[in-house]
Amino acid sequence: MDVSVILSRAVAAAAVSLTLYLGAPAFAQERFSAIVVDMDTDEVLYEDRSDERRFPASLTKMMTLYLLFEALERGDIALNTRMTASRNASRQPASRLGIRRGDTITVEQAIAALAVRSANDVATVVAEHLGGTESNFAARMTNRAQELGMTDTRFANASGLPDDRHRTTARDMALLSEALITNFAQYYHFFSTTEMSWRGTTGRNHNRLLGQVPGVDGLKTGYTRASRYNLAASAIRNDRRIVAVVLGGESSAARNAEMAWLLEMGFEELRRREIEEGGGRLAAARIAALPWRVGPGWAEGGEGDEDDLANAAAAAFGDAAYSSDGASFTPAVATVRTEELPLPVIASPGIIRH
Asked: Which of 97, 144, 300, 326 has the greatest count of CB atoms below 10 A from its CB?
């Protein structure tokens, strides 16, 4: 078979796969915002309303941990330093560890309780130990945010529990995620811890992408009624690290699907650029193998299935290509040669720009 025909079919299959893949999920909810950043270059690979103000919810605890890590590095505390719970701390609502007034907890336990179990009571323990009062500590959190370039962020407490004074953006949360990974690499492993036990009870990490999406190794989830479902996540593949933030997901499952999609899209964009930079346009067939969905049960209400993708790819490699308008496909004769069909460029969800 003529090489140009083979390559033409490969590129057609790549376009089909990317069209299917980019068609879901749909980011239409009012409170949704997101950003994807290449940590190697600080380049934004994708953003959607990334500078609009949102409530951070428990993503707030990333800043609580940031100040805790700073105190460790200064030598003000050690991992085995014990902190005592006040009455105020013991009365914080869920999520909580269940710490009682007068109980003590080590700094190391507190880090795990915040990163894994998102414990509001422990966030207050940390705030009062380091700042005297939680309000003083929240002011320090806001000051540090400003110093990190998080110009649209204000913290009102250490946990992210509802407060109208809270505010942040997806961009600011990405900056904080990058700062945690870069400045405190020695503590970053806490964010990938899958469970934490306290007094005979074990709680799982709220970040369900750990162990499910390749390369994901942190950071933090969050939820309040006002914020909806938030997630800051990072993943590394082939020595390239991406940070992504989703704010305002409609459900935990939708948020997870959106985040998994964003990470896949980000890494695929990096691969696309590597192909172009290396003069590898003829390697576009690699993209045809891109998975279109994120995993069983995550893309709730998603259209199409693996058979759709297989049939479309088979058609592309056969005598016809298929164009997609969602989950339906319309036959189109594959007459275009590779030099006439550039690699698809990701523009926004559901859109392929040539």
From this structure: 97
Taking residue 100's Cβ as centre, other Cβ atoms within 10 Å add up to 12
Asked whether residue 37 is domain-assigned, the answer is: no
* pLDDT, tens digit, 9 for 90 and up, residues 236-257: 999 999 999 999 999 999 999 9
**Strands (E) located in the chain:** 33-38, 43-48, 82-84, 104-106, 195-198, 201-204, 216-224, 228-237, 240-249, 320-324, 329-333, 345-348, 351-353
Distance between CA atoms of 339 and 249, rounded to whole angstroms? Answer: 40
230 dihedral zone (left: phi>0; alpha: psi -120 to 50; beta): beta
Catalytic residue among 8, 118, 177, 227: 118
Range of the domain at 307: 1-24+282-354
Q: Is position 118 annotated as part of the catalytic site?
A: yes
Candidates 50, 61, 177, 234; catalytic one: 61
* Distance in angstroms (rounded) separating the CA atoms of residues 19 and 300: 19
Catalytic residue (one of 58, 86, 159, 227): 58
Q: Is the pTM of this model over 0.85?
A: no
Q: Which of 140, 179, 186 is nearest to 62 (CA)?
A: 179
278-303 core/surface letters (b: 16 or more CB in 10 A; e: else): eeeeebbeebbebebbbeeebbeebe
- Nearest of 353, 23, 58, 63 to residue 226 by alpha carbon: 58
Residue 333 lies in a domain: yes
Q: How many domains does the chain have?
A: 1
Distance CA 115, CA 141 (A): 17
Residue 57 lies in a domain: no
Residue with tokens 């009455």: 87
pLDDT: which is higher, 28 or 146: 146
- Is 350 part of any domain? yes
95 noted as active-site residue: no
pLDDT tens digits, one per residue of 296-340: 333 333 333 434 434 443 443 333 333 333 333 333 322 223 333
Our answer to whether residue 177 is catalytic in this structure is: no
